Amino acid sequence: MVELHRSGRQQPELVKEKVAAAASTHQELSTLESALGDGQGVGEVRQAGIGGACPECGTVHGSVDRYCSWCGHQL
User: Fold this and answer.
1) Same domain, yes or no: 50 and 33
2) Percentage of the chain surpassing pLDDT 90?
3) What residues make up the domain containing 18?
4) Measuring CA to CA, which residue among 22, 26, 23 is closest to residue 34?
5) Are strands 60-62 and 50-53 parallel, antiparallel or unpaired?
6) Residue 38, Cα to own-chain centre: how many angstroms?
7) Do both 29 and 54 map to the same domain?
8) I need a labelling partner for 33 at 20 to 30 A (CA). Which of 10, 45, 59, 73 fits?
9) pLDDT-derived band of residue 49, with 50, 70 and 90 as boundaries?
10) Residues 51, 33 share a domain
11) Structural domains in the chain (count)
12) What percent of the chain has pLDDT over 70?
C-alpha cells in the first residue's frame, strides 16, 4: 500500500480488500474482548512480516527492515 502511494499508482480493489481485512480483525478483537470481559483493549496487533511504524515518519516497515524505506531512519 505504501509503495502504491509513493509511486502514485492506484489499485482501489486492493485498498478495499485491505480495509475489509482490517475491519474483520477489529470485529474479531472486539468480540474476543467482550467474551473475555476484562475491559482492557488490545494495545497492539502484529501481523507476520510487519515490524511496525517508523518512529520518525510513521511509515509501516517490515519486521526485518533495519532502516525506514521512506525517510531512512534507523529502526
Assistant:
1) no
2) 19
3) 1-37
4) 26
5) antiparallel
6) 25
7) no
8) 59
9) confident
10) no
11) 2
12) 88
pLDDT at 13 exceeding the cut of 80: yes
Looking up cell 497492539, which residue turns up?
44
Residues 6+ apart with CB under 8 A from 48: 63
pTM of structure? 0.42
For residue 45, the model assigns a pLDDT of 63
DSSP the chain: -HHHHHHT---HHHHHHHHHHHHHHHHHHHHHHHHHT--PPP-----TTEEEE-TTT--EEETT-SB-TTT--B-
- CA-CA distances (angstroms) from residue 52 to 11, 31, 49, 59? 23, 24, 9, 8
Rounded CA gap, 35 and 29, in Å? 10
Find the length of the chain: 75
30 vs 71, more confident: 71
